[in-house]
Amino acid sequence: MRARPCSGACGWRALGVTLAVAASALALAACGAASAGSGGATGSGSASASPITIPVTSSPVPGASGSSPAPSVIEQAPVQHVKVGDLDVGYRTIGPFGAAADSTPLLMIMGSSGTMDMWSPQFVNDLAQGREVVVFDNRGMGETDDPGGAHRLSQLADDTAGLIKALGFSKVDVLGWSMGGDVALDLTVRYLAEVRRLVSYAGDAGGSHAIPMSKETLAVMTDMSGTVEQRGMRLLTLLFPASYRDANPKYYESFPQTKEQTSAKAIERQDAAIGEWKGVWSGIRSITAPTLFVTGAEDVIAPAENAKLMAAVVPGAELTVIPGAGHRLMYQDPQKLAAVVMDFLDK
Fold first, then answer.
1. What is the 3-state secondary structure (H, E, C) of 239-284?
2. CATH topology for 12-345?
3. Tens digits of per-residue pLDDT, 199-217?
4. Predicted model pTM
């Protein structure tokens, strides 16, 4: 895949196939594989129409006994489908596990090139203790139809609004991660009546106000040298702070085991939509739903300054900057992140 010049909305999220390489490297690290030659993303980084699997593991790979890890809280929830416009959308419903059946459902929007089984199971489990949690696949990803053709990033917000209606919800809480955080902002700006509370985790509002990653980070993101495994392991250094990686040398074991497949072509179309997004900076000033911006202080992918700027613009917004956390905070410390989110949603 050809890397495009990036600024603002077009940051690391315009490199979805490349991040799939990082996920493949996680699986190889967990399995102790000697070669990545059979990975779904090609060594040259070029996109193809064939399905690619983004395999990561949440626990040490089983040994010779052939045993498998127990299904996660996400895997235990059956995949369901609902018609939303031109799409058959795949989703899962988890919880509530506690005594809060009358609470507002929480709808979670996944980031670039991701599928709903990439959410941290511990994070989802904690959130579902007091509310119904709905995770789903964006247009063209995993269990959701891929109608082909170009689409706008705002189309993902339209799809999400359609999903809320199709599921029979009058109002939901919304949490979006990374690109999903951008979509959540777009959704709230244009479908404010459907959103009770908003959580934007590691997102930005796009446009010229968005703070891009550094040139050094972008250089690592676009470095196509070496094998798939070598490229993937380089990318992983960007997703977790060095201090965390040093203290947790098997940090890749915190990732969930993913089984869904997404075509490289679909990821490429999503990348193009992100790169063309003009943002919703002027619109966020009109958000009246209670809003929380969460960011890791050491996030080099979506710099924390983005959350700080947005929190200063959205009326009454709250800001939580977590020290020592990177872009994948929900894998670093899912319980801490869940506690921050639940405290906000339960107000």
1. HCCHHHHHHCCCHHHHCCCCCCEEEHHHHHHHHHHHHHCCCCCCHH
2. Rossmann fold (3.40.50)
3. 999 999 998 889 998 999 8
4. 0.84
